[in-house]
Amino acid sequence: MGAFPIRARSKFWPKHPLDWGIFIVTLFLIPTIYFYEMFTVYPTVWVFCPNFSKVIPVLGLFIFTNIVANFVGLVVTDTGVPKEVMSCTKLPHSSKWHYCEMCVSYVPIRSWHCKVCKTCILKRDHHCLFGGCCIGHFNARFFVMFLLYLLIGTLYCVVSDTMFLIEKVDLSTPSVVLKIGFPAFAYLSGLETLANECYILLYIINWAALVFVTVMLIYHVRINLKGQVTHDVTVSNLEYDLGKLQNVKEVLGNRWYIAWAFPLISSPLPHNGLEWETSNEWNLRCERDSVKGK
């Protein structure tokens, strides 16, 4: 079966109340923290490093643009099983496909049904609450790059905010525990100003995001390097491990070495998401190609 073109989802808004809540918070926090860092923290912290400070706005814009663009990419990209290939009867080319009772159709291998999205997802990994959609074959690249740039961004924020708070907040007294651990109580009790407590709150958010994103990115990089998705991990399946380099191409595409720079850079995926080679089939094909090339 030939390649299937990447398409945009016709309805990309979240379908579940929890998805909606997290989706809205994400849309609010990303630009809020960016403008806070660039217009409040940056002028205060980096004023004493004139050479380095000239680079930060450019890098900041680059990171912010990639975070937003990859988030949009993972949200709007349709990674569901194409309706035109579904069938209630098993076709000759689909001997390995399995039957989905929810879709009332045979669906490709490595495709599983999502109750929230109400469809089967090609190479489904998990349902992403932040995007209100599933991460699968066609949007895995955007998801991994979203995490990567979010990690870089939050790491910068934590470093800058630490220096910023040292200048703004008195951290030498025992009350610092209340100021950082309970910012609302510290403000209401008069220990700190409202502005400083808002700075502290954003600092806590950045730390929480840094820890969460680090754990998520490490987990997904590890399973991607093994050619797995979350379902494969739960059943200890390494059947589709094609080697680290090829596994990277399965996520980032054939132009993986440049695909990280920006989501709009074309990087075609090796598979169409409907058919998959096992590691044994892949090795045999590579051996045949090697013999033909001699």
From TrEMBL:
It catalyses: L-cysteinyl-[protein] + hexadecanoyl-CoA = S-hexadecanoyl-L-cysteinyl-[protein] + CoA. One of its GO terms (cellular component) is membrane. It is a multi-pass membrane protein. InterPro entries: Palmitoyltrfase_DHHC, PFA4/ZDH16/20/ERF2-like. The chain crosses the membrane at residues 20-36, 56-76, 146-166, 200-219. The keyword Transmembrane helix applies. Residues 95-232 form the Palmitoyltransferase DHHC domain. Coiled coil: none annotated. Its EC number is 2.3.1.225. It comes from the Eukaryota. Pfam families: DHHC. It is an enzyme of class 2 (transferase). Keywords: Acyltransferase, Membrane, Transferase, Transmembrane, Transmembrane helix. It is found in: Membrane. GO terms for molecular function: protein-cysteine S-palmitoyltransferase activity. Its main location: membrane. Belongs to the DHHC palmitoyltransferase family. The DHHC domain is required for palmitoyltransferase activity. This is Palmitoyltransferase. It comes from Frankliniella occidentalis (Western flower thrips).
